[in-house]
Every structure is written in C-alpha cells, then in structure tokens.
C-alpha cells in the first residue's frame, strides 16, 4: 500500500464543498432521538449515489456500510457517528438555521454524520490501495436512554464482519480548528438518572404543625444525599450527584403542597462504585423521608456506563493525529464527568473516542454544546473528514501505509 496523508488531504479538498453542504442540510433538518427518519434516508441516498450498499433499519433508524479493500476479512475498523438532535430552539441567525421548530443540532451530531460521510467517500476512492474493511456506523439516539449504541450492538452492528476496533470523534468548542484531543483509559463517566417523589400532607403555611411538609423533607434529602459522594464513594474515584429539577403539585407563599418531585443524576468512573452508590442513595433517601414522616417513591434509571479508551487503540489514534495534524496540534485531555453512549462500544471492544476542535482561531464558535447558539467553524469538517479516514487506515491491522 502506498497512501500518504497528503493524498488524503488532497481528496478531502476535492470533496469538502459537498461535505459542508451535507452538514448545512443536516443542521437545517434536525430530528429527535430514534426518530431520525429523514436523516437516515438522506444518509442512505448519499451512500447509494456513491455506489455503496448501506444496510438500513439497524436499531430503527441506524445504518451500516462497508468499504472493503483488498483481503477484506483480514481486519475490520469501525468509525461511528451519531445522528440525533436535541429539543432546543436554535437562536442563531444563520442561513442554515434549523427549520424544525424546537429542535437543533446543539451537540454537533450533524458535524459527526457529515464527517463520517466524508471519510466514507475518501476511503471508497482508496479501497484498491488498502487491505481490510472499514465499517461506517451511523447511529441513532445518542441523547436518550437506553442509548442507540446499546441497540446497535444488540442488532449486530459489531458483527458480520466482526469489528476489531472502533473510533468516534466529537466536536469540541474548547479547541480551535485544526486540533484534536485524546485521553487514554478512563475518560467519561457513567450516567444514571434519579427520579424521586416525596409525599407528605399539605396545608396552610401558617400551620405547619398540622402538615407533613414535603418541601422541608426534600431540603434535608438533597443535603443528605451529598454524603453519597463526600463519604460513600472512594475519594480517589471521581463521582458527582446533582439534583437538577425540583417541582411540586401545588404550593404558594402560604400553601404547603402534598408532593414534591425531584430529578437528578449520579455519575462516576467506577462501575462497582456506581452500583454500590445506588444502594446508598436508596438507603439514605428512604431513611430521611420516612424518618420525617413522609413517603417516598424512588427510581434510578441505569444509563450509560463509563467510557474507557483502550490504551493501544488510543495511542494509535493519537499517533495518527500527530502525523496528520502535526504534534503541536494534538493535546491531552482530562477526565470528564459528562457521559456518552459510545461507552457501550468501549465496554465490549477496543475503542477510542476523541475530540475534534471546532472553534475559530479568532475566538468565534466557542458557545458550549447543548446551548441554543452552538455552532462550529466550517473548516473543522476538513480536519474531521481527513483525520477520521487517516485513523481508520492506520489501524487496518496496524499495517504501515
């Protein structure tokens, strides 16, 4: 084989206008998790127009497509992109603003999908020059439990052929365009959702002695639950418990309600500590609420596991990035307590999930993800397409190119 990074970059420059147009279209037409019907059709039609034969209907709206080189059974590398959008109203005034009321690509999944399509197009032009197979995984539902990755795996996305290693990239407004970030080992936290209903007995705010005040109980409960992190989890293991929503079934300045509803999240990097903490949460919550005369309904929805970047795969991807972008443009990342359903892949096969710089050098495009003004510098797509393709080629059986 004789494929150079400059050859990859040359092909990317030839197709980048098309790929940017793809991103504009996807950004304008965001769809919620597991309802990416138009998106899936658009991706399918693009792949077919390039002479490929995608497999559709995986986990509902997911797609798979193979780019087979010489000796295709020798090694299989997978590249993954998620396709769903968020229930956020876009506030930016750009020509490609979302036309779907109440939804936008505020987490960059339009960029991920466009970059994977671009990488597929590059690799398809070079398939006569490399050995092995690249499997492109277009995944639904990253933003919603149980997570599209788990469903893709259950539907056999990592089989036929068996995937040896998988890579995913994610937009990162903390880095400027042209840079990428990597973290070996534990990188992102597990993510579980906590739902609690505290039931008491409401009444007049001036006569609390005749009530069982669920607001007071909830206040004690929120404070007490912090013991799970401060005293119940090994202090060398990062963990966080946050209550993000509190509401009641009534109440006013002089009315104590009957019920209070709380929602929160628990996250950690250790799977055994994770489920031990669940039991501590339950024990503390019931003892506080019942001890103060109330009743409690508690549900913990088990979400995504911790994301672990396999050391060999990550070292290989980082080295490839240094070759493709220059060592000065590759950075080491710290652990994050955010979560990603790519973690399901990382639990079953060697995986690497890395970050793609999307901010402009002049300081634009730095709004965080999951906000109504999030956007990326379009030049990030050129980096994302080329780097994705280059990492895949460098990992086809760890063969030199």
Number of strands: 16
CATH superfamily of the largest domain: Zn peptidases
Oligomeric assembly: single chain
Computed structural class: alpha/beta
> What is the percent of helical residues?
25-40%
Give an account of the 3D structure.
- With 401 residues, the chain is of the alpha/beta class.
- The chain has 2 domains: 5-188 and 307-394, Zn peptidases (Aminopeptidase); 192-301, Alpha-Beta Plaits (2-Layer Sandwich), CATH 3.30.70.360.
- Helix content is 34%, strand content 24%.
- The protein contains 10 helices and 16 strands.
- It has helices at residues 5-28, 37-49, 109-125, 148-154, 214-225, 227-230, 271-291, 311-325, 343-348, 379-394; strands spanning 55-58, 62-68, 76-82, 133-139, 165-176, 180-182, 185-188, 192-199, 203-204, 239-248, 255-256, 259-268, 295-301, 307-309, 330-332, 351-359.
- The strands form 4 sheets. Strands 1-2-4-3-5-16-6-15 form an 8-stranded mixed sheet, sandwiched between helices. A 4-stranded antiparallel sheet has the order 10-12-8-13. A two-stranded antiparallel sheet has the order 7-14.
- Helix 8 (311-325) crosses helix 10 (379-394).
- The protein is elongated, with a radius of gyration of 24 Å.
- The mean pLDDT is 96.
């Amino acid at each position: 084989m004789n494929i150079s990074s400059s050859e990859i970059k040359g092909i990317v420059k030839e197709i980048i206008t098309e790929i940017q147009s793809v991103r504009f279209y996807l950004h304008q037409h965001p769809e919620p998790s597991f309802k990416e019907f138009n998106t899936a059709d658009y991706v399918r039609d693009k792949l077919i127009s390039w002479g490929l034969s995608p497999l559709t209907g995986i986990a509902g709206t997911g797609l798979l497509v193979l780019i087979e080189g010489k000796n295709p059974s020798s090694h299989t590398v997978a590249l993954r992109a998620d396709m769903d959008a968020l229930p956020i109203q876009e506030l930016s005034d750009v020509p490609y603003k979302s036309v779907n009321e109440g939804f936008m690509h505020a987490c960059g999944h339009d960029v991920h999908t466009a970059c994977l399509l671009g990488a597929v197009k590059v690799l398809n032009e070079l398939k006569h020059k490399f050995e092995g197979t690249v499997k492109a995984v277009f995944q639904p539902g990253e933003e919603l439990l149980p997570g599209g990755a788990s469903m893709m795996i259950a539907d056999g996305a990592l089989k036929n052929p068996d995937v040896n290693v998988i890579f995913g990239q994610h937009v990162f407004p903390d880095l400027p365009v042209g840079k990428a970030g990597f973290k070996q080992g534990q990188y992102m936290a597990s993510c579980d959702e906590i739902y609690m209903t505290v039931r008491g007995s409401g009444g007049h705010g001036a006569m609390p002695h005749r009530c069982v005040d669920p607001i007071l109980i909830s206040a004690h409960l929120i404070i007490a639950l912090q013991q799970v992190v401060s005293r119940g989890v090994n202090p060398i293991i990062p963990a966080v418990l946050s209550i993000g929503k509190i509401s009641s079934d009534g109440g006013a300045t002089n009315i104590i309600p009957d019920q209070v509803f709380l929602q929160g999240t628990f996250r950690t990097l250790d799977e055994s500590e994770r489920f031990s903490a669940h039991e501590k949460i339950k024990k503390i919550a019931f003892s506080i609420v019942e001890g103060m005369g109330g009743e409690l309904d508690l549900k913990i929805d088990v979400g995504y596991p911790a994301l672990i970047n396999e050391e060999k795969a990550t070292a290989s991807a980082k080295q490839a990035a240094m070759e493709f972008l220059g060592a000065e443009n590759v950075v080491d990342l710290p652990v994050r307590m955010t979560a990603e359903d790519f973690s399901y892949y990382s639990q079953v096969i060697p995986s690497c999930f890395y970050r793609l710089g999307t901010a402009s050098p002049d300081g634009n495009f730095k709004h965080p993800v999951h906000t109504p003004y999030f956007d990326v510098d379009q030049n990030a797509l050129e980096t994302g397409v080329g780097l994705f393709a280059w990492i895949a080629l460098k990992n086809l059986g760890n063969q030199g190119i």
